[in-house]
Amino acid sequence: MANSSDSSTSTSSAEAPKRGLFSRKTKEAKVKKPSRLKQIKDVFQMTRRHDPMVTWLILLAFLGTVAVALLVGFLLENWITGLIIGIVLGVLAATLVLSRRAERAAFAQIENQPGASGAALGTLRRGWITEDQPVAVNPRTQDAVFRAIGRPGVVLVSEGPSHRVKPLIDGERKRLARILPNVTIHVIESGRGEGQTPISQVARKMGKMKNELTKTEVSTVSKRISSLGNRLPIPKGIDPYKARPDRKAARGR
Q1: Are 124 and 188 in contact (CB under 8 A)?
Q2: Fewest C-beta atoms under 10 Å: which of 51, 82, 139, 190?
């Protein structure tokens, strides 16, 4: 009888489904994404640290829109509908103000830092082909040139003082002119100096350029430029393929 009970216990334990080792980890590994309200709150707090006036501007945009909608509603003798529409449009206006101010605050944080011009190109709308890495760099001064390809042509965005970055721009422009003789090459110098464009206005300035290429031509230009490869400077050092072992040291002499 004892043997039968042991066997039944063993069979029941064998039939019991085993707990998966990875099931608990997958549940614990899931990270909840922050809600939309949490994201808006974080953006607002970040913006307010750099722009204390953002709170009053948001309230002004919201209340002003609601007041105008209410006035129109009273004139049409339907103030309830005017209030509802005003609240919706007021939230939209406040969101637009917050997004504009948040973008300015974000640019203010990265301004004068290496790679700021590349970050500015990341805010471009669809239709542009950009690269995360600069196409020309001065390792000593950290001056750089970034490139974007779009329907207006090729745009070179420099980063650094005009007198220092000019050789980089001229070299890249000549390099592109040899393979793209019929494509317009624009130059934008980012910065706060004379004749330069703040990084917060680089994307806007590029958006106002006149289109000269079709979408197919933009893709063709991008492929032709990519065929050249990257010519960024490589640090000097020992070439492992040219290195030769010290035979005397290997023999102990």
Answers
A1: no
A2: 139
